[in-house]
Amino acid sequence: MLKLYNTLTKKIEELKLIKDKEVGLYTCGPTVYNFAHIGNLRTYIFEDLLKRVLEYNGLKVNHAMNITDVGHLVGDGDEGEDKLEVGAKREGKNPLDIAKFYAEKFLSDLRDLNIELPDPKMILPATQAIPEQIEIIKQLEAKGFAYKGEAAIYFNTSKLPDYGKLSGQKLSEKKSGARDEVVQDPDKKTPADFALWFFLKGKYENHILHWPSPWGEGFPGWHIECSAISRKLLGQPFDIHTGGVDHIGTHHTNEIAQSEAAFGVPLANVWMHGEFLLVNEGRMGKSEGNFITLDTLKKEKFLPIDYRYMCLQAHYRSQLNFTWQSLGSAHTALNRLFDFFDFVSDVVPGQIDKNFEKDFIAAIEDDLNVPKALAIAHQLLNENIIPLEVKKASLIQFDKIFGLNLTQRTIASIPPEVDKLAIERKTAKDQKDFAKSDELRKQIEALGYEVMDTPEGQKVKKKIGI
Ligand code: AMP
Ligand code: ZN
Asked: I need a surface site. Which of 149, 223, 332, 356 has the fewest CB within 10 A?
C-alpha cells in the first residue's frame, strides 16, 4: 500500500488512482535561461524516485513535463523581465536559441543522473502550447474569472473562495506579500491577482517572443503554461503533480486556481513537493549567486551518480545541506556497493531475500523513505549468513529504485581517462616495470583517484577530502 504526503491535504495518504494500473504524473519543468543547478536537480531526482516507486508497484506511469521558454518573470510574480530575455541579452542570442541550448543541457544532466526521462512527446515547451493557453484564458474570461488591465489580462483571485488552499495562506496574507506589485500594477483589483496574458506595452513593449490573441499581441504568464500542458498531455484531473517547495505559494497555487476555475474539476489529486538543497544553510538559487552545477562537480572529479547517491541519503521532505565532505562520504558509501558488485562479478544472481525485500518495500511505500531503504541495502550487504548470490539478486532488485546502475561500475564510476591510465598501470606492473607503474600511479592520483593492489587485483577509487 503506497502512502504519499499530499501538500493539498497536509496528510500522508494511501494513493488512490483515477485509472486502474496507470498513473498520470506531471513534473514542473525547468526555466531554460541558464544551467540547472544541483538544487534544481535534487527536485528531479526526488521525482525520479517517485516514478520508480510507482513503476515498482506495477503501474504504468504517464509522465509529462513542460519546458518554460517564455513568460517566467524574474521574481516568480508579475514583476521584472522575462528570464528568457535576461538570458538572451546576457549571451547576445535569440530567446529560443537560449532555450534550446539550456533545455538540451538540462536533459543531458538528467541522463547523467540516471533519471528516467518522459517520452519525448510528453515534454512540451510553453511556446509550443500557445493555442491551448489562450483557450483556458478564454474559458476564464467567459466564466468571469479574468479581467483586462492596461498591461495584462489578470486572473481575479477574489472570485475563487478557496484560492490559496494549497499553501494554506489566506488571501489577506498574500496581499501584504505582494505589496510591491500594487505600486507597479495599478490595474490589479487585488494584489494577489496574477497575469494570464501580457500585452506588448510598457516594460514589455519590446518583448521578443509574442503571439496574436483575442486580447491583442502578447505572451502568456508563467502559470498558465502548466495548466495547459498538463491538461493537454494527461487530461484533467490527473493523479500526481510535483515540484520544489518554492512552487507551493505562487506557481502551483495559481495553476490550481486557473484550471479549477476554468473547468470546475480538480487539476490534480495529489500534490508533492521536494525540499530545498541548501548551501551554507541558505537556499541554493540562481539569483542567490551561490549555485553549483553538475559540471562543477565533474570538474572536482566527482561523478553525477555520487550526487544522486547523496540525494538518496536524505528524505525528499527534508532540507539537505550541500558540502564537499558530504558528497565525499556519499561517494565512499556508494563505492562500498560498487566494490561488492566487483567482488561478485562472476556470481550468478540467485533468489531475492524475502525478508529484506519486505522491509525495503515497507520503507519506499512509506512516503518514499529512500534513506531507510538505502540503510536496508547496506545492512543486507553486511549480513554474514546471506549467500552472495542472494545479496546480489536483492541489490539488483533494490537498484530499480535507487537507479545507481550498480552492475556497471566502470562506466558509472571511473572517468575514461583514469580508466585508461589504470589499464596501462596494470600492464606495466604485470611486466614488472615498477618505475612506469609508479609514474602512472602518480598520474592517476593527480586526477583525484587512488589505486590499490588488493587480493582481487588492482582497484581504483575516488580520493576523498577535497
Ligand atoms: P526553475 O528552473 O527555477 O523553474 O526550477 C526547476 C525546479 O527546481 C523547480 O521544481 C523548483 O522548485 C526546483 N528548485 C529550485 N531551487 C531549488 C533548490 N535550491 N533545491 C531544490 N529544488 C529547487
Ligand atoms: Zn509548473
From this structure: 332
> Which residues partner with 19 through β-bridges?
22
pLDDT in tens, 324-350: 999 999 999 999 999 899 899 899 999
CA distance 156 to 260: 13
> Quick one: 72 and 221 in the same domain?
yes
Asked whether 224 and 137 are in contact (CB, 8 A), the reply is yes
Q: Hey, which bits of 150-276 come out as E strands?
A: 152-155, 194-199, 218-220, 238-244, 268-274
- pLDDT for 183 equals 46
**Per-residue pLDDT for 424 more than 50?**
yes
Q: What confidence tens digit (pLDDT) does each residue in 68-85 have?
A: 988 777 766 666 778 877
Same domain, 371 and 427: no
Gap from CA of 412 to ligand 1 centroid (Å):
26
Q: 227 with 333, same domain?
A: no
Its domain, for residue 351, covers 300-308+323-412
| Percent of the chain residues past pLDDT 70, beyond the cut | 93
pLDDT band, very low/low/confident/very high, at 182 (cuts 50, 70, 90): very low
Contact call for residues 145 and 160 (beta carbons, < 8 A):
yes
pLDDT score at 200: 92
Work out which ligand 1 atom sits closest to the CA atom of 242: 10
Whether residue 395 is found in the same domain as residue 452: no
The predicted-structure confidence for 107-166, as pLDDT tens digits, reads as follows: 999 999 999 999 999 999 999 999 999 999 999 999 999 999 998 999 999 999 999 999
87 lines ligand 1 (CB under 6 A): no
292: in domain: no
The position carrying cell 558530504 is 326
Ligand 1 proximity of 28 Cβ (cutoff 6 Å): yes
Pocket perturbation via mutation, ligand 1, pick of 40, 123, 242 by most ligand atoms within 8 A of CB: 40
Q: Residue 135 Cα, ligand 1 centroid: separation in angstroms?
A: 28
147 located within any domain: yes
Q: Which residue, among 20, 273, 258, 306, has the nearest Cα to 159 in the 3D structure?
A: 258
Does 391 reside within a domain?
yes
439 and 407, same structural domain? no
Say whether both 442 and 407 belong to one domain: no
Q: Report cis status (omega within 30 of 0) of the bond before 237.
A: yes
Residues in the chain: 466
At 177, which CATH number? 3.40.50.620
Same domain for 395 and 364: yes
Query: What is the distance between the alpha carbons of residues 101 and 32, in angstroms, rounded to a whole number?
Result: 8
Give me the number of domains the chain comprises.
3
**Burial environment of residue 396 by CB neighbours within 10 A (0 to 12, 13 to 18, 19 or more):** middle
25 and 63 Cβ atoms separated by less than 8 Å: yes
